[in-house]
Design brief:
By secondary structure, this protein is mainly alpha-helical. It contains five helices and no strands.
Amino acid sequence: MGAGPGRGVECCQFYRLHGLARLLSPQDFGLLALAIVAVDVARIVSSAGLTDAVTRDKDWDELLADTAFWANLALRRIVGALTWVLAPLYASVVEQPWSSAASRCWCRFRR
């Protein structure tokens, strides 16, 4: 397992969650975990591989980079808005009414 550029981010996220687990009650941390699942799935969908496509292409030009940037920005905003709007539906599916507010909060600050 190599130490790629994403390892530092993963370590920071792990320690942040570790700290939150110690600060929050088990019920509150469970709600946070539900919010993290919903928002991270939306984040994965919103990336759509556009950044990878630009970095993989050896002959990219400014038009390709601009198009990928603006498409990525628009897609993330659309998916973020959908996550915000569908948070109450997600809360009813998981039968945790407070997960709606947690998902919306995590969606707002997870960029």
